[in-house]
Write the structure tokens for this entry.
Amino acid sequence: MPARRNSRRWFHDRPLRQKLILSFLAVILGGGVVSLILGTRLEHRTIFSLAESKVRHDLDSAWTVYQERLNHIRDVVRLSAAREFLLDHFGSGRKDDLAAKLDDIRKEFTLDVLTLTDASGRVLLRSRNPAVAGDEQSADPIVRRALAREVAAGTQIVDKAELMKEGQDLAERAFFEFIPTPMAAERPGEREENGMMLKAAAPVTDAGGRLLGALYGGVLLNRNFEIVDRVKDVVFKGEKYKDKDIGTATIFQRDLRIATNVLDDAGVRAIGTRVSRDVNQTVLVEGNRYFGRAFVVSHWYITAYDPIRDPDGRIIGILYVGMLERPYVDLRNRVMGTFTLMAGLAVVVLLILLAVIAANITRPIGVLVEATDKVARGDLTHQVEIETGDEIGLLAGSFNQMTEELRQASESLTQWGRTLEKRVEERTAELRATQENLVRSEKLASLGKIAAGVAHEINNPLTSIVINTALLLEARRPDDPDAEALNMIADETNRCAQIVKQLLEFSRQRPAQESLTDVNEIIERTAQILEKQALVRNIPIVKALDKAVPTIMLDKNKIQQVFSNLMINAIEAMPEGGTLTVTTRFDAPAGPIEVEFADTGVGIPRENLPKLFDPFFTTKTMGTGLGLAVSYGIVRQRGGTIAVRSEIGRGTVFTVKFPLEEPADEKNPEEVQYD
Ligand SMILES: Nc1ncnc2c1ncn2[C@@H]1O[C@H](COP(=O)(O)OP(=O)(O)OP(=O)(O)O)[C@@H](O)[C@H]1O
Ligand SMILES: [Mg+2]
């Protein structure tokens, strides 16, 4: 079912708020429709059962009216039968007077028939039609009972022949051509010629109680609207609804309407029509009461029908009452309308409430979603402000905590990364320095070995050359032409001895001979030796010596050699002249002692700095490249450090530092520092 799946998808993809509203709406509307249906049915039933019980009651009231009329006839007949003039008549046999008197009674009490018979039931006088007499009436059940000295009354079918005897006009009143209606049951024939009559009879007796005859009287019900109109007036009080009588009553002769106040469309009493098939079956065939809605002539009625029986118990007609259904339908519709309107209003109010509630529920979720989005995009400082105590509030709390933890974790991660980077850099630098030192130490070590060997081999021949040259010079006069050459040999040999000495120094073959020494003093001495040489090059030597510098244990000669090397280098770096400043400093109280040689010379290119202390590194044509290497070895041997910083074209500064105490382990000296 792709359509169904689509609609489900459609619902699933709605925002939460719409989903809530749609769900609630479905429930409200569903509930509304169900209660509307139930309400309608319940109300319908209540209203109509009310109407039905009223119509039942009305039918009983109608019977009372009917019965009253019958009782009235019976009373008139009974009282008339006891009248003096009737007894006189049987005594004297005079007729003229009697006919007039009976007819007066008949008219006074609105009877259609008032007839006197003799003791055998033969008609003596018909007050309405005196011309017809002598016929036998003893077969009539009511008359028969009067002849048996009872007063009897009841409803009876009177056939056409009998009606003709009582008066032709009565037969005409009883006559009906059937008016065809679609609902009526089939019935043979097309007309009704018999009549239906309320009839009573009473015995006429003399003073001794002897039966003289019988008097019977009756009212023909056909086209007689007295009873039905009385029912309408008494029972329904003549109430009207939209110009129509609410209550109606009808008397049927068998299934034929013979007296009614139901009007047809033309406003004429609807007599001559017949009862519906249903009612016919229930009332006439089965002899039961009938209740229910019925379409009578042109409108719907709530109706009740009861069979009318003759004195022998045979069903001969129907008594009907009906209430117009319209007022009840209108009442129901009005109530339903009000109910629906109120339900609609309730739905509207609920919807508004719903929208507010849904908004309240979904707003915090929206805030959370937004916050999640921000956090996902990397904003870990975002905090949600929901302070409800429900699940969403808890969720918001957890969310905030989670974000905070995430932020801390990320921060420490970044921090850690930075530290790591720094550490790596530091370690790399350390490693590089260590490696360079290693290389340098190795070079120094191998050079030391060579130097030691060479010095050992060369020292002895050099000594013998020096001694023999001295001996030869002593044996010559000063003007001896060989003396000059011998002097040159002596000088050059001395120079060689000096180099050998330097090499021995470098290889540390000679142990240090330390004594308490004033560093300032060594500076003064070295400066004095070099002063002339410097002044020739137009270089003053400026000394800034700290008097606080204490005396320390040093090998005087070696340290003087270091200072001399550094100062010569400085002088050689200033071919155009400049200033050499020597400064001493003491960092009290622990030291170290600092000696600084600053020149205003050419400076050292950056790439040369790492190679400066390597043996044989030189940029000079006559240089050996051993000066700094040797100085480095000496300073280190004493436990000190030597550092350099330089700027091309501006000058160079060498800094030598001596700790007060010589470290016990000399193999762990400070590293060379380059700035
Ligand atoms: N003060 C300085 N100014 C500029 N360059 C310097 C300075 N001191 C040393 N140097 C550089 O360092 C190199 C090595 O110096 P080192 O004293 O070891 O040997 P040298 O001076 O070249 O030779 P030697 O000392 O044997 O005469 C020099 O050739 C020079 O290039
Ligand atoms: Mg030098």
